[in-house]
């Protein structure tokens, strides 16, 4: 999985100048995580984008993202559980509504 993610991120860097959504995504990630490239500034060649921090010792975004996910794992897990509970409740309410509509239509002879 690590290899796949790293390779995909490296491939997306090649689309930075040709795809506006890729450019916006990379700029947001680099600004939020204070990182540059996948493994470091060298991923961008001789001219890193302006969204890269000016610090020469800046880390790559892959390492920074892993660190961010590990440090926020509990919060992410709680949010995912809440989303799942809301989905199950929504399905339960939809099923209850469907059953009620069936009963009503049978009582009315429709």
From TrEMBL:
Membrane topology annotation: Multi-pass membrane protein
Residues that span the membrane, as ranges: 73-97
GO cellular component: anchoring junction; plasma membrane
Keywords: Cell junction, Cell membrane, Glycoprotein, Membrane, Transmembrane, Transmembrane helix
A Pfam cross-reference name: Tetraspanin
Recorded superkingdom: Eukaryota
Localization, UniProt: Cell junction; Cell membrane; Membrane
Assembly with partners or alone: Interacts with SCIMP. Interacts with CD45/PTPRC. Interacts with IL7R. Interacts with RBL2 and PPP2CA.
Family: Belongs to the tetraspanin (TM4SF) family.
Protein name as it appears in the record: Leukocyte surface antigen CD53
Organism: Neovison vison
